[in-house]
Amino acid sequence: MRAIEATGLRQRYGSRTVLGPLDLVLEAGDSLAVLGENGSGKTTLLRLLATASRPAAGELRILGLDASIERAELRRRIGYLGDNPGHYPALTARENLEFFAVLFGVDRSRARAALDLVGLAPVADRRAAELSRGMAQRLGLARAVLHAPQLLVLDEPDAGLDEEGRNVLARLAEGRSLVLATHDRELAARLCARTLDLSRSPLEVYR
Q1: Where are the chain's structural domains?
Q2: What global pTM score does this model have?
């Protein structure tokens, strides 16, 4: 089963085309880094792949399912970290993850394991508003893997991360189908086997 299969994918805002047309195939277990200047469409593409928005044109299948029709099921199978981690600031790190565990339909006990995984167990009871930028980003990564997704879609996941945090990111990415957007070509080469540069024309994936 392919992780992603897109044909003629295009996105518009009003009359302006901001992405595409794009053909893309990502096999299960493969990894893709999306590169490009600000405004090139990286976040737009990742929102489409995470089913956070719908394409203006084209076909998109994710994990064998039609992304336009089976969005609810896909959201149970995709781990997504957007360009804003989007935590509830008044809740603790643990409470944030427990809340999302309920939304994902998984046991709340997974929150503790996810915090351990990203090295946040010592601050589990600290409010999200009190976390440093790097810790907040780690919490976002913990939420993205909380429900054991088949596909990870990460938008600038290295933002605010120190070297230890980048090592955490590398561990989370291992063995998963992965798409990440980044400006850091070194990180792209470290984590991903394939690259798509949205600043290039025509758009094509290369190794």
Answers
A1: 2-206
A2: 0.92
How many residues can be counted in the chain? Answer: 207
Whether the predicted pLDDT of 149 surpasses 50: yes
Task: Classify 64 in phi/psi space as left (phi over 0), alpha (psi -120 to 50) or beta.
Answer: left
- Enter the CATH code of domain 2-206: 3.40.50.300
**Radius of gyration for the chain, computed over Cα atoms and rounded to the nearest angstrom:** 17
Q: Over 50: is that where the pLDDT of 207 sits? A: no
Reference 173, options 151, 195, 189; nearest CA is 151
For residue 46, give both structure tokens: 């990742």
42-71 burial, b for 16+ CB within 10 Å, e for fewer?
bbbbbbbbbbeeebeebebbbbebebeebb
